[in-house]
Amino acid sequence: MSEENKSKSFDGRQMPADVEAERCLLGGILRDPEVMGVAVMAISDDDFFYLERHQLIWNALCSLNKSVTPIDPVTLSAELTKMDKLDIVGGREYIFELMESVASSANVPWQLEHLRSKAVLRKLIRTSSEIIRQAMDPASTPDNVLQDAERDIFAIADNQVRNTLKSIDNFVAPLLERINNRREGGITGVPTGITELDELTNGLQNSDLIILAARPGVGKTSFAMTVAANAAIRYGKNVAFFSLEMDGIQLAQRLLCSQAQVDQSRLRNGKLNSDEIKKIIAAVTPINQAPLFVDDNADLGIMELMSKARQLKHKGHLDLLIIDYLQLMKTGKEENRAVAIGAISRGLKILAKELSIPVIALAQLSRKVEEKGRERPQLSDLRESGSIEQDADMVWFVERPFVQTHKDEDRYKATLIVAKHRNGSVKDIDMSFVPEYTTFYDATDQQGMEGGDEDYQYGSDDEGGGPQVADFGSF
């Protein structure tokens, strides 16, 4: 196909392109090789030039630039000869013609932006055409087509002109800010509200995949909700909580009782004293105003999760993603369960890197941890796939001795075992757990412990002198 006919290659209509601007850009570089540095930072892919001959010339210019060879028509012709492409581009005559076609390189910045917009439009056309082809394929599934379409469209949006070459002072200033934050007790990542954990990790860092694991009933959902509430309500971080196990009403109830410090059982029964009612009403406003998003779709798959997360991130509404829990996620066509779970964990790690956010995925531990003589869970106890351990940047285990001992002295004790920390040290972190609120606190935080006994629950300062049916009035 000739270059003249190539311009009408989509449905008989001309593809977005400006061949004359391409000629002027290449001629400007030959006229003033100093602008090659600007062009290299702006041109990120092979589709930038529409005509093949211009792409070949650009590749030769890049080779000269890389080898620190002076750029002029003679050296460019020699490089194209070495590449055996000189005749394809039109010979030495075309090279000199390019340089003679422009008087200066003054318009190079405009030409770069103009040609970039044309290249983006061509990518959108080709991507749309591929989406149509996949959708017409009888073997395709809607989930796969949507996933590929969304990935490709977001890739086009993200791969705009990126100037990654920066002066060193662009990096020194943020570094000094981080150092200053650490000196003042601040953190650089998403805070969890658990002081010792935040000190260990300096906050949950972008691109990290964190696995939070425990046996059923130990409190992994409660700990995840504690982190979500602290990040969203106390620190104003945008948090998305995907729950495959509990519905949104149940999560809201836990959150409300946690923030109000009211016994869940009394809320369920509707027999609250006036003090508890006041606490619940006071807790509603900060919860409603918090940037916390909940999805309780129990049939969630990795593709749908990635799609929703991308949409939130694109709108600027995502700093932390939590999934409860990994083994409940809908898998693809993999027959082997371990392979399927491995694909999900890899997908979550890719998502964390792509969106540059921390991702917490809850996971079940195998029954081995319940064997007698086992003092603590191990990384090998993660159920169904070694890929989970491999993909994770951190692995946390939640332990509550009361689950095994049922002793009163163990009732409020809890430990977070940081069993893997790719960018730091491992550690056991003591915490407090108040089962009435299903909430975790710092081990030294007495506020959370207040009200764990019956005297508080049935408050003697109530005007009615005891329990009463909850009446929220206009609330």
UniProtKB/TrEMBL annotation:
Residues 186-365 form the RecA family profile domain. It holds the Pfam family DnaB_C. GO terms for cellular component: cytosol; primosome complex. It catalyses: ATP + H2O = ADP + phosphate + H(+). Residues 451-464 have a biased composition (Acidic residues). SMART domains: AAA. Signal peptide: none annotated. GO terms for molecular function: 5'-3' DNA helicase activity; ATP binding; ATP-dependent DNA damage sensor activity; DNA binding; hydrolase activity. Keywords: ATP-binding, DNA replication, DNA-binding, Helicase, Hydrolase, Isomerase, Nucleotide-binding, Primosome. Residues 183-447 form the SF4 helicase domain. Its EC number is 5.6.2.3. GO terms for biological process: DNA repair; DNA replication, synthesis of primer. Residues 445-475 are annotated as: Disordered. Coiled coil: none annotated. It comes from the Bacteria. The main replicative DNA helicase, it participates in initiation and elongation during chromosome replication. Travels ahead of the DNA replisome, separating dsDNA into templates for DNA synthesis. A processive ATP-dependent 5'-3' DNA helicase it has DNA-dependent ATPase activity. PANTHER family: REPLICATIVE DNA HELICASE (PTHR30153:SF2), REPLICATIVE DNA HELICASE DNAB (PTHR30153). Belongs to the helicase family. DnaB subfamily. This is Replicative DNA helicase. It comes from Fibrobacter succinogenes (strain ATCC 19169 / S85).
